[in-house]
Amino acid sequence: MRVQPSSDKLDIRAKAALAAAVLIGYLSINVSPLLLGAVKDSMGLTASQAGLLTTLELLGFGFISITVANWIPGWPTRRLIYGFATLVTLSQVVSALSSTLFALGAARLVAGISEGMVIATTYALIARQRQPARIYTRCLAILFSISGVCFLVLPDIVGHFGHRGSYALVAGLTGLAAVFIHKIPPPQTNRATVGGNGAHRPAAVVLTLIAIPVITFSDGMIWPLAERVGVAIGIAPRTIGFILAVSFFSGLSGTWLADHLGDRFGYTRPILAGAWGTATGGLLIATLATVPGYIVGTFAKNVAIFFLMPYLLSAAAAMDPRGRMSAAAGGLIPLGFGTGPIVAGHLIERSGYPILGWTGLCAVAIASLLLIPGFLSLHKLRSSRV
Asked: What is the CATH number of the domain that holds 230?
């Protein structure tokens, strides 16, 4: 595979292609609260059955990303992204046409596997560019902006067309995004290689990779069920969609802050701040049971998670500049997130919504302990480059 010299910079078309690939991989996961609610209502599913559909998608996503992470850097990047982006769109179309739980479950599993391949390949490719942190941040900002628009329009679509219309919208957007991915760039020489390789710190790498899904499990306990929590409080569906949309747009301030700060404070404090911030937001959503509490919680959660994600991916790129850890992280993020809805569904049926917030907070406490060796490793890595 040809590698560009490190002096080359990506043009706007290459950046747009990377952003389009990230959108294809993550759009349906980002809008999962409304998709989950649409499926539950239009097909008459229980909370645990609806949660299972999201879990199947995210487990397929995470499993394939982790499985192929070690080999991704040597594979034909562009062909992989083109092929699996097509499968993502087709699986959304099949989901829109499905009328049984089994058919929809199979479609969501295929969607997850295809999305996982797109993200693993794209994230590994970004890790091998110059300034990967900035590319991650801006790709995520575009993803979050479009997801916010979806939250504004999906409630009306759900009201008229149920889950069929919801998945049709996702299919249309991913199909449109696929038009832009033909300008996917080849890898460049990442300057992160000048300080060492994550392979020299196996314990730190392993513990960091374990901590990532524990953090996102905390987010997955609440966010896919945020629409259901709003309904339980008594908020109208259209109002819920508006609140979630505005919270997504407000979350862009977290992405902007991550881009503005860069690595001037290292990785430790930003990752801890983001992790505890998103868990605290989830606690507010789940326990206050008031409209103001719901609004504050969704806003706090999205600002924190949008701030956190670029730092998690940048840390992975710094620990392994070849992109293998970034590919794995791209799958571990939804793997942890995906276990949240099914666990949450069972907890809700037994104890109600408040237990979700406390469980998410405990998960972040465990993840913080797991991250300590990785933080120390990254601090030494950063210091060696100063």
From this structure: 1.20.1250.20
